[in-house]
Write a structure and sequence with these properties.
The structure holds 2 protein chains of 2 kinds. Chain A has a domain of 50 residues: Histone, subunit A (Orthogonal Bundle), CATH 1.10.20. In chain A, helix 1 crosses helix 2. In chain A, a hairpin with a 2-residue loop joins strand 1 and strand 2. Helix content of chain A is 31%, strand content 4%. Chain A is mainly α. Chain A has 3 helices and 2 strands; from the N terminus they run αααββ. Chain A starts with 11 loop residues before the first helix and ends in a 10-residue tail after the last strand. By secondary structure, chain B is an alpha/beta fold. Chain B has 3 domains: 329 residues, Amidase signature (AS) domain (Amidase signature (AS) enzymes); 54 residues, no CATH class; 76 residues, no CATH class. Helix content of chain B is 39%, strand content 14%. Chain B contains 16 helices and 11 strands. In chain B, strands 1-3-2-4-6-5-10-11-9-7-8 form an 11-stranded mixed beta sheet, sandwiched between helices. In chain B, helix 9 packs across helix 11 and helix 9 crosses helix 12. Classes of the chains: A mainly alpha, B alpha/beta. Chains A and B meet through helix 1 and helix 2 of A and helix 9, helix 10, helix 11, helix 12 and helix 13 of B.
Chain lengths: 105, 496
């Protein structure tokens, strides 16, 4: 389903959905704060609808150069200590994370 | 107003150190004395490295005394925006998310500047993750403008601009995704250069909009910008988007005026929406060019005001992807867990606590526009508009060498004056298209506007086509010389 980029009136449910997709835990007050701000920006962006884009190919990057390949030689990565020094939680030589799989009940 | 010791700019300080007329250690000590005296008023720096910096400066003096050859930036003090990675100190992006982050590597640009002898004095505050145009959205407190501490310095390279303007470093580097070097440069009365996309390696620049971001110099003069770009540009195996071109050699040519220069004046750039002094400064610069024998060319850029719409699709879309890496697992802020929380809750709470409101807004905008059903209507459409904007610049540069216009519609505004996000985004109307098209742009001081009895700098912007920095800087140097009487009439209220 395609939507036109016209000024959308965002609902709280839509903002909450986007926040879930964006992995941001928002309470209802935050959703309500963001809702008109996001709607205003999306409304402004609707200007894009008025530009004649016939024949204009999407341009994702300023310079369309070809893939650049590095020589296939092994290089030293960062030492484990350098990686772990910024980790919020560590167990031995590993990053500690909460349980990923639910326990059997 | 000169740097402590009477040096006009970074190049003058460099020359004085190289000739033995000045001591690098004394210049460095004077810089830290300035930071101690004025740091609190401006909040330009988040962290400084006095001991290391003085030790490096002493080594420069010793090398000179021993007759060893000095590299091109030997002993000059440099500030680094805190979204550029340095092994020394922290790299926080002025965000709670990276409040304690210590980079295991130096950015290529920093590595090259240090190898060229620059002494890094500290990390400067920014709008969180370089998202903002005022310097107000910083986890470590807002940054103030040295010309009027009740006003913003501009953003996002707020601390770098304030530090250079106040003489708290000889020069600085910032990053520019949609105007983040040029707009604060204009607000603080300094020179800010956004190089062509691909000129400077982005390795070690914390990614915001990867197809838009560039590191660039923020300096007291055009020749300083040339010198710093010369020392940090060029290919880099660690960034596959850097152009396959040798480092620039702009310092060698910057003093040479361009004969027969063609200056394009886009009709859309001089508008009633600008403050009168901004339009007046642009007109004065056009007159100055005319007096130097340049030809003024009328240019039509009808897509100028489509830039903001295009930018606020592409930049948030790229940001939402780039900032997905902050999940509270490998580095960055991790929220406290509650009983029953799963991994998804850890991600979502860590991100909600770690990112400030502007960053969250842009992540949500990008996520929305990249989501199923909206992707083509927003993202693909913006990429097609991007093509049109690039074509428009190509046509313009067929008829002229550089484009002249305002950097921003107004001089520095008061704190809180642009609390509405969309109003803040409009501050970048003249700068975003440079990044969208990947060309180069520079802001330089061109006059003043009086507000409440205080003089505020007004900047003008020059733009040139991709990889035309030599032309851009030579044209800028001509103008800098020609408007010197206009720009030296006032001095910042806060200065070392």
């Amino acid at each position: 389903m395609a939507h036109e980029a016209n000024a959308p009136s965002l609902t709280a449910a839509e903002v909450a959905h986007v926040a879930r997709l964006a992995k941001l835990e928002l309470d209802p007050a935050a959703v309500e704060r963001f809702r008109p701000q996001l709607a205003a920006v999306l409304g402004h962006i609707a200007k894009l609808g008025s530009v004649d884009l016939a024949g204009a190919e999407p341009m994702a990057h300023p310079f369309e150069s070809h893939n650049r390949l590095a020589d296939d030689v092994p290089v030293e990565g960062l030492p484990i200590e350098a990686i772990l020094m910024n980790a919020p939680a560590v167990e031995g030589r590993f990053l500690a994370v909460p349980k990923v799989l639910a326990e059997e009940s | 107003m000169a740097l402590p010791g009477g040096h006009a700019d970074l190049t003058a300080l460099r020359d004085a150190i190289a000739s033995g007329a000045a001591s690098a250690e004394e210049a460095c000590a004077a810089t830290f004395a300035g930071i101690k005296a004025h740091g609190a008023a401006l909040n330009a720096y988040h962290e400084t490295f006095e001991e290391d910096a003085l030790a490096q400066a002493r080594k420069v003096d010793a090398d000179r005394a021993a007759g060893r050859p000095l590299p091109p930036l030997a002993g000059v003090t440099l500030a680094v925006k805190d979204n550029v990675c340095t092994v020394r100190g922290r790299t926080t992006c002025s965000s709670r998310m990276l409040g304690n982050y210590r980079s295991p590597f130096d950015a290529t640009a920093v590595e090259r500047l240090e190898r060229a002898g620059a002494v890094v004095v500290g990390k400067t505050n920014l709008d969180e993750f370089a998202m903002g145009s005022s310097g107000e959205h910083c986890r470590w407190g807002r940054v103030a403008n040295p010309w009027d501490t009740g006003r913003v310095p501009g953003g996002s390279s707020a601390g770098s601009a304030a530090a250079v303007a106040a003489g708290l470093c000889a020069g600085a580097i910032g990053s520019d995704t949609g105007g983040s070097i040029r707009q604060p440069a204009a607000f603080c009365g300094i020179v800010g250069l956004k190089p062509t996309y691909g000129r400077v390696s982005r390795w070690g620049l914390v990614a915001f909009g990867s197809s838009l971001d560039q590191i660039g110099p923020m300096t007291r003069s055009v020749r300083d910008a040339a010198l710093l770009l010369d020392c940090m540009s060029g290919t880099d195996d660690r960034d596959s988007t850097v152009a396959d071109r040798p480092p620039t050699a702009l310092a060698a040519t910057v003093e040479r005026p361009i004969e027969g220069l063609r200056v394009g004046m886009p009709r859309q750039y001089v508008s009633d929406a600008n403050d009168a002094e901004v339009n007046e400064a642009v007109a004065a610069c056009a007159d100055a060019y005319r007096a130097m024998g340049a030809t003024i060319v009328d240019v039509d850029l009808p897509l100028t005001d489509v830039g903001i719409s295009t930018y606020y699709v592409i930049a948030p879309a790229e940001a939402s992807s780039n900032l997905a890496r902050y999940d509270g697992i490998r580095y960055g802020h991790r929220a406290a867990m509650r009983p029953g929380d799963d991994l998804a809750a850890l991600y979502a709470r860590s991100r909600a606590e770690g990112f400030g409101p502007e960053v969250q807004r842009r992540i949500m905008l990008g996520t929305y526009m990249l989501s199923s059903g909206y992707y083509d209507a927003f993202y693909t459409r913006a990429l097609r508009a991007r093509r049109r904007i690039k074509e428009e610049f190509d046509r313009a540069f067929a008829a002229c060498d550089v484009l002249l216009g305002p950097t921003a519609p107004t001089p520095a505004f008061a704190f809180g004056a642009n609390d509405d996000p969309l109003a803040m985004y409009m501050c970048d109307v003249y700068t975003v298209n440079t990044n969208i098209a990947g060309i180069c742009g520079l802001s330089l001081p061109a006059g003043f506007a009086m507000r409440g009895g205080k003089a505020l700098p007004v900047g003008v912007q020059l733009q040139a086509n991709a990889f035309e920095e030599e032309r851009l800087l030579r044209a800028a140097r001509m103008l800098e010389r020609a408007v010197a009487a206009r720009t030296s009439a006032h001095a910042p209220a806060v200065h070392a």
